[in-house]
Design a protein that fits this description.
The structure is a homotetramer. By secondary structure, the first copy, chain A, is an all-alpha fold. The first copy, chain A, contains nine helices and no strands. Chain B binds a DNA duplex through α3.
Chain lengths: 196, 196, 196, 196
DNA sequence: CATGAATGAGTTTTCATTCAT
DNA sequence: GATGAATGAAAACTCATTCAT
């Protein structure tokens, strides 16, 4: 039996606290003490586990991206065991994305914040770049099972991911009464599938 | 010749200085003194022309949006005099958007920052909402000259604007060597025009 | 016919504006622009008519004290023409003081502020000192018409003025529901007159 | 021996520093850094122990009033053990007040400042109100041991406290060479005792 | 005289970071 | 590991004062 918590667990506790905080305030307006309060730990400890405030942010972003990569991978594995391919696979993928990622408002809000940070911070940008490339590639492969045109599949995939991110943005910025996000999302995705 | 500058000119000088600053640092890391230094005026003057720092931001965002609305309107007027309609109009519009807006990197970077601010600030969000609604409506009307199906046109328009914003994001976050923005943009737009 | 207002009038207009301001905020929280706004003049003008902010204060205090000295002198003259003396004179004097000075809440509030300024400012203190000495002497002379004991009259006068100032303080600090200022004032004054 | 000072001690250290400062400058001209310098602590620490500058002031005023209430209570207890009553008790009380309170110039100066703050600040005023009511009531009870006329005792008490505050004011504003405070004080108090 | 833009010193406040216990 | 007092840099904001027009 472990006598003390795994130090990684405490770090995760802190990163989850930052996640909570980012639902309320942007990172720059979130103080170390805010995060510590939500995490239920002493603020001095954050400097024990992390080099400085920016280090918390970097590790948080890696943590968030890893989390959603896992989600994605788990879904992929479940699909592969079912041996689905072609248009049906893409369709299922869109369904998964819509509910778990694109229209997950808490996640989208945090991601808009991450975009803005990445726009000014090359390290964060690098992390994001890799994630988007992996995501586009994964979708591209799926599309390719239906088209057998890798170059076209990649372009469609890139455009689709751009569209999804635009919709994630709109789900936060625009109001549902003037914009039925779900209808626009699924309508467009249907067209994409048709053109395969 | 006017002996004293129009006070509006000085405000614009300050807002342009903020614009410069936002190419380097996010708004939260931009101090009043930073803006004053770039504007070449005393920092106290910023408090003479603006109520507080947030007021500078709000007026800046209104200024930026107005600026691009004007660009857009000027383009619209130039098109109307040419009496163009249908697919050709939409095609020209995409050309205009791509070069002047979506792939205008300085603009896109600033807009990502504005998105993040809007995500946490309802007043800013309201300003953005109206701008996006106008933009979507304008495109929708253009599409409708080709389709005569207002509901479908609106959905396509909304999806297209989402796609453009996603591409603007990618132009900042991703690197051109892994992602040929222009090709993805034009490729997708071609498909949209085909489906009209 | 004078072509322009007497400059003294404009100064008085400014001093009256400060008086208004002091009903709302202490002098230190009253800005030059506040005073200018209430006076209905440009704030730059205050530096034309007065050396600096403290000069406005000094001249204001002199103005207030002169104003109440005039009030007092006018009353004195009206009494002398009636050839009243002794206890009746003192009684009338108290009546005058109570209504015009001690229970004049706006005046008392301003005076508490002046006391605090004088406590830290020797110049202002000198002005106040002279005013209190004149006041005590004047009352002392009145009392002496009844007692013919100058030393005793002076002491009673000094104590009475102290009492009146204490009552002015209480009229501002305490609430009428727990303290009937008028009753305490007149009750005590009656005793003083009895002991003459 | 405690390894770390009681945090209350540090607060008192800061409040005492403010007390020192108020002997030199009014509260509004006393900066947080001034107080910190006198207290011998870092200025940031003042914001650790107090919410803001006004909070320091409020706690300071409560501290001063509590301090003098304690002085008063200690004196009361020492009197009760001696079982003194009637005129002798009142006489002793005046002696105590004169030396410890009314003619304590440092205290009086600070109190004039507090009056001025209270004149514009309802919270501070409430604190002062209670203190004066307690003071008047305590004196009233003492007077009543000699008179057995509660209503008259209360009025005399209120007037006497007003007189004492007026004398405290004069001890700061007027100069001893023109005004023998002690003589006026004791002379008047003697008359009060005679009328009991 | 009158205006109001411009200056810059000074103030409160926040907060990441350090470190003794 | 954990705590919370202490530090000091930097920020927004205020405002008396100056001065060109």
């Amino acid at each position: 039996m472990p006598r003390k918590k795994n130090p990684e667990e405490k770090k995760i506790q802190i990163l989850e606290a930052l996640n909570q905080c980012l639902h309320e305030k942007p990172f720059d307006k979130t103080s170390i003490k805010d995060i510590a309060r939500v995490a239920g730990v002493n603020h001095g400890l954050l400097h024990y586990y992390f080099k400085n405030k920016e280090d918390i942010l970097t590790q948080y972003i890696e943590y968030v991206i890893d989390h959603y990569k896992s989600l994605f991978n788990d879904w992929m594995i479940s699909q592969q065991t079912q041996n689905i391919g072609g248009k049906k696979l893409v369709e299922d993928f869109f369904g998964f994305m819509n509910t778990r990622i694109t229209l997950n408002k808490k996640l989208s809000k945090v991601f808009i914040e991450i975009w803005a940070i990445a726009a000014y911070n090359a390290d964060i940008r690098t992390i994001l770049q890799q994630a988007y490339q992996e995501w586009i590639s994964a979708l591209s492969e799926m599309l390719n099972t239906a088209t057998n045109d890798p170059a076209a599949a990649w372009k469609t995939s890139a455009a689709t991911v751009a569209f999804l991110e635009g919709m994630a943005l709109f789900s936060i910025i625009l109001t549902p009464d003037t914009f039925d996000f779900n209808q626009v999302l699924t309508g467009f995705q249907k067209k994409i599938i048709e053109t395969l």
